[in-house]
Amino acid sequence: MYTNAVYSLIYLILTIFFLRIKNRKRKFKGRKE
Fold first, then answer.
1. Residue 21: how many CA atoms within 13 Å on its side-chain side?
2. Would you state the pLDDT for residue 21?
3. pLDDT band of 29, cuts 50, 70, 90
4. Distance from chain centroid for Cα 13
5. Which residues span the domain enclosing 20?
6. Cα–Cα dist 17/13, whole Å
7. What are φ and ψ of residue 31, in 5° steps?
8. TM spans, by residue (predicted)?
9. Can you tell me the distance from the alpha carbon of 28 to that of 11, in angstroms, rounded to the nearest whole number?
10. Torsion of CA 4, 9, 11, 16, to 10 degrees
11. The dihedral of CA 3, 4, 9, 11: what is its sign?
C-alpha cells in the first residue's frame, strides 16, 4: 500500500523535474542573442 504511493509520488516529482529542464532548454534555444 505505502510503497505504491511512494512510487507514484517519486514518478510525479521526476516528471515535473524533467518537464522543467525541457522548458528551460527550450527557453534558451528560443533566446539566441
1. 5
2. 87
3. low
4. 7
5. 1-33
6. 6
7. -100, 90
8. 6-23
9. 26
10. 170
11. positive
Pairwise CA distance, residues 10 & 2, whole Å: 12
Whole-structure pTM value: 0.56
Cα separation, 4 vs 1, in Å, equals 6
Hey, what's the cell of 23?
Answer: 522548458
Show Cβ contacts of residue 5 under 8 Å, excluding neighbours closer than 6 positions: none
Domain count, the chain: 1
Cα separation values, 7 from 15, 18, 25, 33, Å: 12, 16, 27, 41
